[in-house]
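can u do me a favor
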């Protein structure tokens, strides 16, 4: 399903979310309006490195960030592999890849925010 967020149309794979599309859209609207800080949606994470990265990212609280390196260390992986997995995140915004930053920069992965 396509959603408009931050002046960009973003694709979200709703087949990985148990709730119906109308509930997903409702929660996304609340999040984008600043009325929601966490999603209450059941996500089926892929059985892959991407899924493992998504699970780690989903743990990052609202208003906080983690570096690619921190995620990589938690998964015994590399920062590059984590960055690639962020780019493959099939449910951006809901699994907040925008909360993952470079180690020495304020830059963020913006695949869901460009």
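np, heres the sequence
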């Amino acid at each position: 399903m396509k959603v408009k967020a931050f002046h960009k149309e973003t694709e979200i794979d709703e087949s990985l979310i148990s709730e119906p599309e109308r509930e997903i859209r409702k929660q996304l609207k609340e999040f984008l309006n600043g009325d929601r800080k966490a999603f209450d949606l059941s996500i089926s994470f892929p059985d892959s490195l991407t899924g493992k990265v998504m699970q780690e990212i989903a743990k990052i609280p609202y208003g906080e960030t983690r570096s690619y390196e921190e995620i990589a260390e938690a998964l015994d992986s590399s920062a590059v592999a984590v960055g690639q997995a962020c780019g493959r995140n099939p449910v951006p915004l809901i699994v907040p890849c925008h909360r993952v930053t470079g180690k020495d920069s304020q830059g963020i992965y913006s695949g869901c925010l460009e």
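Confidence is low (pLDDT under 50) at residues 108-114. hope that helps!!
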